[in-house]
Amino acid sequence: MNTVINLKSLTAGLLASLLMAGSALAMDSVAIEEHMAMISEETNQSDQPRVEALEAQVEKLEELIRMMIEEKDAGS
To answer: What are phi and psi of 21, to 5 degrees?
Structure first.
């Protein structure tokens, strides 16, 4: 039960982060897909418990979003 709540919280946090990025998707979509696939693969191969691995994945995806926003801001 607690794991389900954690997963829902992580998912909601990730979706909120992605929504905040909005127009920051000016970065090459192929590069984004490759980076996200790499993050997912690292999560799947992790020896950490599933919730901890997902928390790490969310942090990496948030970092990717921040990087995209910074690149967009630098280009403006």
So the answer is: -70, -35
